[in-house]
């Protein structure tokens, strides 16, 4: 396994300027953390199902001695799963941004002429409200193109995967905020029951986005590694 902080062993000539750095170690870390996010999402789904089942029993009169204690425990399970999810998401975001900057840095070596934004944008773009819904995708598209063996071709490989991941991530992010707000505002049994369903659906969307993110990280990392080992692309005439 190539360590994340070691130079990539490549036949590129030693010239002044950016030096290739291996993204493999970081990609492994991102993959592992995204797996933890998926586990947290599954726990959220389980807690939501438990809450909905309890409220179904209450509505049907199946819980004769219902005094709020069971609902409180179910709500605590929802809150605990949400805390685990938040911690996993924060850790994943930090490592993902580091990986994203690493692959953008490598793109400066592979094909700097097709990069529309400087490497610093690979970090800064995530902290700009609203704009962070599309600027990172543009940077990712440029990095993806640079990692292709022929970066000036009409369309790079894996563009469909990039679009699928980005679309799923934006949708999951927006839907999750809506579902969480709806659950927090719910007061009566029916409202909590329906809101728990929204939370469960949001976790499902998040799992899809996480799986696509894993595939994208792995494929882009593999593409950069393969291109680095292949050496500079000969000029075309």
TrEMBL record:
Keywords: Membrane, Transmembrane, Transmembrane helix
Residues spanning the membrane: 26-47, 82-101, 121-140, 161-178, 198-217
Keyword Transmembrane helix attached: yes
InterPro entries named in the record: DUF4328 (IPR025565)
Key word Transmembrane present: yes
Domain DUF4328: 68-222
Protein name: DUF4328 domain-containing protein
Species the sequence originates in: Streptomyces rochei
């Amino acid at each position: 396994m190539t360590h994340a902080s070691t130079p990539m062993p490549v036949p590129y000539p030693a010239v002044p300027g950016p030096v290739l750095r291996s993204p493999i170690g970081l990609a492994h870390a991102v993959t592992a953390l995204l797996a933890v996010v998926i586990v947290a999402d599954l726990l959220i789904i389980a807690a939501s199902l438990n809450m909905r089942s309890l409220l179904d029993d209450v509505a049907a009169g199946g819980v004769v001695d219902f005094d709020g204690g069971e609902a409180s425990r179910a709500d605590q399970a929802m809150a605990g799963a949400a805390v685990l999810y938040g911690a996993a998401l924060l850790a994943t975001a930090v490592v993902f941004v580091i990986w994203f900057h690493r692959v953008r840095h490598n793109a400066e070596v592979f094909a700097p002429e097709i990069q529309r934004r400087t490497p610093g944008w690979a970090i800064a773009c995530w902290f700009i409200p609203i704009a962070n819904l599309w600027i990172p995708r543009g940077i990712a598209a440029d990095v993806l193109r640079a990692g292709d063996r022929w970066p000036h071709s009409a369309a790079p490989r894996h563009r469909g995967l990039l679009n699928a991941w980005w679309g799923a991530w934006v949708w999951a992010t927006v839907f999750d905020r809506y579902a969480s707000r709806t659950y927090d505002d719910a007061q009566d049994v029916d409202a909590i029951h329906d809101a728990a369903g929204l939370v469960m659906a949001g976790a499902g969307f998040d799992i899809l986005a996480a799986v696509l993110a894993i595939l994208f990280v792995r494929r882009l990392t593999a593409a950069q590694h393969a291109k680095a080992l292949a050496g500079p692309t000969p000029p075309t005439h």
